[in-house]
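PROTEIN FOLDING TASK:
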Amino acid sequence: MPNFATALTGESGENGVAKLVMERLGWCARRQGNPDVGIDMQIEVGAGDGDATARLLGVQVKSGPSAFKEPAADGSGWVFRMDLEHLDYWLNYPLPVILVLYDIDREVGYWQHITSQTVSDTGKGFKILVPNNQRIDADSADALAALAERAGANGLQEFLLQLPPSCAALLSALDREAPSLARRLARALVNGRTTPARTVQDLAAQAPETWPHTAWLILGQYAVEYEDRIGAIDCFIRIDATAEPEQRGRWTAFAGSMLSPTDPDRARELLTEASATPGGRLLGPIGLAILDHGLNVAPVPLPDIVLASADETERDPAIQRFLADQAQRAGDLNLSLEHHEKALRLAPDNTNQQLALAEILLRRPEGTPAARLMSDYRRAANLASSVRAGKRRWLGDSVPAAYLLQSALLLAEDVDRAFRVSRAQPDGEATDAEAASPKLAMHVARVAYEQGRPERAEPFAAIVEASDDHEARTMLAAVRARAEGSEGQESRWRDALAATADTGTQLMILGELADLGCWPLGELERLRDDQQLRPGMYDLIHARALTARGETRQAQVLLRRHLATNALAAERYVALLAADDKIDDAIAVCDAASSQFGGSRHDLQALDVLAGAEGRTEQLLTRAAGFLSRSGQPYSLRHHVRSRLLALHEQRRDWAAAERLSRDGLEEVIALLDDLHDGKVDQLSLPETASDDLQELKRGYVLMLITQQFNRGHTARALATFEEFAPEIREAFEAEIWLDLHRLHGWTQQDIVRAFELAEHGAFPEMLVGRILFTLVQTCEPDSTVTHAGSAESESPGAGTSSDDLDRIAIPPSLHEKITEAWNAHFQRRAAAEAPGQGSGMLSEQELTNRALPDYARQTLADAAIWEGKLPVGAASIVAGTPYLLAVAERRARILPIADPDPDIYRGELSAADASLGEPVSIETTALFVSAALLDQWVNIHPEFGSVLLAERAAHDIFMSHLTARALGGNVDYYRTDLSTLRSIPANTPAETLRRMRRHVTAVHSATQDCTVTHQLDLSALGAKAPRDINGPWPWLAPIALAVERGIALYSDDASIRAQARTYGVPAFGSLALLETLGTQRDVLPDRGMALALLFAHHAVDLPDVAGLIRNALNAGDATSGPVLINLARPTYWQVHTRDFAATVAGIVTPAYWRDPSSLAPLTSAIATGAAAAFADTASATALTAAVILTQCTTVTREAADIVVPIIRAIAAQHSADPIITLREMLVNALTDPVAPVRRSRTTAVQIVDHALRLHETGTE
């Protein structure tokens, strides 16, 4: 201890430090008085207002030249040396202690906190570095105040934390007996952890004869924990020399047992000696029995004295461990576990016993209930993790504990965490020594190769290859050869077999040889003869060989014997059944095995079997959902199964189910993170290292949830989820969703900044960068002069960016300048990269044929099929590559077949509409378009139904159409090139047309808020007549399937869709029938003429009173408008005008022609097209059309005929007909008709007609 004489010096140094404390810090310094005994003063930290805080520091001051005589080599401060007695005193002082070196001449004090971490043992004393940047001044006030809040260093306790628990407990006991020795010994053991054998040897050599028994016990236990067998034997022999009489012999017995493998003669001497002592009277005979038993794998017979001393054996942890080992040899794993439990209760600090218990927990006998099995795995993982953490702390070998933890995780199917155990930080949780372990690396490399993931295995394989572990390297060579399917696999496996003595490894290799068809296997026969095989193992390996040889029936016979007793046999049997397509039998065996053996392995195998079978999707979904409903499964395993379910639901486009699953996963992860924050750690289900994994899972579930809400068209919810959780955006599709959501719902300045950061990310495709930048240019303006929506014009070089209804966001001018520069740079890059001669993006006929259209339309263009009623108008969206609703709003199909001209069908639709009122109804997109966008009657219509169900596929299409339509408010030229959904919009599309499309689509999107978005289970409800790709993304078919599934009516304004629905027994109606019904019953029908006019103007065909609508258009001078020409080209129009065909044609063409002669050609084309399709005799129909026009509407002149005749000839040719001869006869007859106003002779008539038709020029007679 410090002496009083030394304490009388240093007066000026102490005064100087006290002055610094009071003047520079404003705190109180209290001198200890003379003489002091190791602490010169105490400092009380002051509060900010000068009040005392009762927070104290102990201070030792050293001053004068001697304090600064050893500058640090790097110039960072000074090294101060002193004896260990002072260090022990300071480390065990009740207050934190600082050492202050005081420079008397400069009046500066430098300080360092004295802890076991800041000091270094030099053998003769200790040294400490006092930094030159830690001065007693205001800059150090916070650091010193923080130290004053801590408890004293308690030097012994700090050392004990760095030593094995068994040593720490003994050192605590020694501290009560000889504190100075306990502290010196603790310090020496801590400092010697990197060379433990040398430390034990040196301490044993220097130990005086007066060393107490406990000191030798500490040293011996230290040698055991650090695997120094020689040192442990030496210490154990010395222990007995100092032990109490009743304990002598125990440690000698331990020493003899440890010598048995290497020096059996000396071991026998020691064990015999121990057997005659009180402490060794049981352990000695046990050691001799083990020695006599030799290499026999059978249980060691218990000595009689042990059998007769039941009470003593119950209290001795070493004997309990011996009994556990013998029970395991006998195959009684339950009894072995019982003895291991007793051993650990008797020696709770023994890390070897903790690992032994963990290992036996992982070998639970088959038939253990699943819940108990998972509990055992969890306990084993916690034990192994605890030992691993301890070994790391006291620098022991943590690899065995890590290996057991890895094994527990693999048994619990937590493969990803098992890989983390072997992977170095920060990507994993392994220390450098663990990450370099060939044992751990080989463990997971093999798993990765078996999973077919060589890229994951190779980093671990490299560790094995770089090691000097011959067994691991030969095993790696065999595993890799098997994974690669290379030749020489058998020889590599036999090399690996020869390199290992571990029975478990040998069985694994023998199974691999059997898989190669090798049989018989001599080593397997030896293991069976030595009774080292578990029941059924021999037949299991034999069955593998039979399977490899193609003798699967015999293999199944062998496996069936062990289905109730061997889990691996059940697993192999299931695989054989599945290969024979006996799916139900395979699932039954999985269920029985899961009930019999517990765990989740067979449940997961059942999922694999169903996933690989045809037509078992529903069964797979049900089983996976049941698995997720169980409690106690590791979160990683639950995530694995949930991911499979999500993939299935997304494949089926069941966004609602996928959203529910994602939300469940997210809530589970959030709860686990909360548990982790609260310290509820479990190594199997919630390890301390799980935070990063859970955060990544949370991000994944959030993005899946957003994606599914996005796909369902629930954009407001998707944006709210984005804003609530703010997930990091890493992938392009994530950025696209985020961008699209803000384009729909608006921006803030913060959003603008984030969007620009995404554009500058550098890892996203150029097209996405362009979309982001263009949106920002379109949306933002500098300064605070925000223009009114729809009135702003933004100009950028190379790109006009006006928007008709987007609000502008004011941003700082500097940011606006950066965005504009980035957009211009992108635009220039895109222009330079654009290939010359790019087409319009329209598909050729052959390309259209190759598209995934329904079978009955693959040989024809979509336009013709739609015109003939063979395809719904939605087929035009496939051709154009645009969303369905957008194609409807764009009039992509040119017609909207709202009405069915058959009066009987219309009467049935009236009945269907009437019956659907007050009931649920399935709505199709065209009905929303007509009712909400064209007629503006949605507000009156939707309350009339019990509910309006919108199929999710249709809802998603409407959402995508809305999103795309909003883009039309900006630079269409830019999007026409870069946005795939708009690639077919003509370059000359008028701005007004684009605004109309956008307005209509927005109206439909708003109307969906009054609908219930619903998932239909399976489009197979449509039956054999449905499109061949029954699960394809056809949003016009989904409402039919929904109506079939729910047994409700369909509301659609596409007559072809209603006709298709009726083939499946679905009552269907359109807006005309509905409005007529409502007008009769509710008096809410708008003016009928106005409604029909609106529909007619939007190219609706086959409308009631369409002739009157055409007449109104003619009177208004719109003879060649789209609605007029399209309806005239419809065969249904002329089928009702069969008897007054000539009068009808004349009534249409004559006034139009005399008002505008240029209308002659389009009217002729439309009428001839409709007539040719309406009547069986195409030549006569087209000839009559031309004859009426030439004789009644114009005159039979060459000028008129040159317009009319080529048109009818081209139309007739499409039907393989030629109308000229018939037309000539009709014209001649008309000119020679006796009742004609001007009758011609036949000769004159023939001359006029032939001249007009140019027949002499063509040679036609």
Remarks:
- DSSP finds 65 helices and 17 strands in the chain.
- The chain has a mean pLDDT of 82.
